[in-house]
């Protein structure tokens, strides 16, 4: 029986682990992928205080090393279900194991949203990617499309051009949603073109992606564009399928919490991108983790008495 299990090792989960461990709570993190969550695949971060410009991998590594130096136990596991037994919580993983704790912190983050265009599943990892840092090197000297108009899309487009890749940014809206400085950088890059007010309706090719069918949102006119790859950054979906049996989710699938990161179930807390919130940034996730850790400590003090 642990004091607290943290599900997810993104910036929110790792911060929560640092605080709970320093509060002498028996803490374990369960994560199914690499430490850092979405942050680890980010090419460059410029807005995390004290670091200036830093790669997502480097910042993830520094946070994870801090967690391990404190002696937090770290387990690899894919959580499939949570069972609330009041003062005891069960965390079920895909390997059939059941982990028990007095309190839980959900920090499972989000997963990339897919386009749902024709043949998308066929070309996943065969030309379609959700991570420029992971797969950009395969497209050196070629032409690709980046789908999306937010900061993630333009940041990744800029990164791709650093590897001699020609990029066309395609956005379903007729404007870009990224901040002004990022938009300016992208527009001043001669390796980036923009196709706004368009969407991908079909992915085409044999064993690998060779072209896409594009549609003008207003005129409905379609045409084909040859490309070697497509990088998709059109939003995120909360990673909460393992919580569907519990009354903690919004209609959109995010975890609903109060200002103390408490859900409607005593002893279950949530932090970071997975919760219902206005701003999803690394710095807000770390703040969530600190707040949740204090709430967990108070909860355990009450339940022990």
Q: Identify low-pLDDT runs.
A: none
- How large is the share of residues in beta strands? 25-35%
Oligomer kind: single chain
- The ordered H/E elements are EHEHEEEEEEHEHEHEEEEEEEH
At the third CATH level, what is the topology name of the largest domain? FAD/NAD(P)-binding domain
Number of helices: 6
Largest sheet: 7 strands, mixed
Output the CATH homologous superfamily of the largest domain.
Answer: FAD/NAD(P)-binding domain
The radius of gyration is: 21 Å
- Overall form: elongated
Query: How many domain modules?
Result: 2
Characterise this structure.
The chain is an alpha/beta fold and 305 residues long. The chain folds into two domains: 2-112 and 236-304, FAD/NAD(P)-binding domain, CATH 3.50.50; 121-232, 3-Layer(bba) Sandwich (FAD/NAD(P)-binding domain), CATH 3.50.50. The chain is built from six helices and 17 strands. The strands form four sheets. Strands 1, 2, 3, 4, 5, 6 and 17 form a seven-stranded mixed sheet that branches. A five-stranded parallel sheet has the order 8-15-9-10-11, covered by helices on one side. Helix 5 (180-187) links the parallel strand 10 and strand 11 (192-196). Helix 1 runs parallel beside helix 2, helix 1 runs parallel beside helix 6 and helix 4 runs parallel beside helix 5. The longest helix has 23 residues, at 282-304. It is elongated and about 65 Å long.
């Amino acid at each position: 029986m642990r004091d607290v299990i943290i599900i997810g090792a993104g910036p929110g989960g790792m911060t929560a682990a640092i605080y709970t461990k320093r509060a002498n709570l028996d803490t374990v993190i369960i994560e199914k992928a690499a430490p850092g969550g979405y942050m680890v695949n980010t090419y460059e971060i410029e807005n995390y205080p004290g670091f200036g410009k830093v790669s997502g991998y480097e910042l993830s590594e520094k946070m994870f090393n801090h967690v391990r130096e404190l002696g937090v136990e770290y387990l690899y596991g894919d959580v499939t279900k949570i069972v609330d037994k009041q003062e005891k919580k069960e965390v079920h993983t895909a390997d059939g194991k059941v982990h028990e704790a007095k309190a839980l912190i959900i920090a499972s983050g989000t997963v990339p949203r897919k386009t749902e265009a024709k043949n998308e599943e066929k070309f996943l990892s065969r030309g379609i990617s959700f991570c420029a840092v992971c797969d950009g090197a395969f497209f050196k000297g070629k032409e690709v499309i980046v789908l999306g108009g937010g900061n993630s899309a333009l940041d990744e487009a800029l990164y791709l051009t650093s590897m001699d890749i020609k990029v066309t940014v395609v956005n379903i809206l007729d404007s870009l949603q990224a901040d002004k400085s990022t938009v300016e950088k992208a527009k001043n890059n001669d390796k980036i073109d923009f196709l706004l007010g368009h969407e991908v309706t079909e992915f085409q090719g044999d064993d690998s992606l060779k072209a896409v069918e594009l549609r003008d949102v207003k005129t409905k006119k379609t045409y084909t564009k040859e490309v070697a790859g497509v990088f998709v950054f059109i939003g995120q979906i909360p990673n909460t399928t393992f919580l569907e049996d519990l009354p903690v989710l919004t209609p959109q699938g995010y975890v609903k919490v109060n200002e103390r990161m408490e859900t409607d179930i005593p002893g279950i807390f949530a932090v970071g991108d997975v919760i219902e919130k206005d701003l999803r940034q690394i710095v807000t996730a770390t703040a969530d983790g600190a707040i949740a850790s204090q709430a967990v400590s108070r909860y355990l003090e009450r339940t022990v008495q």
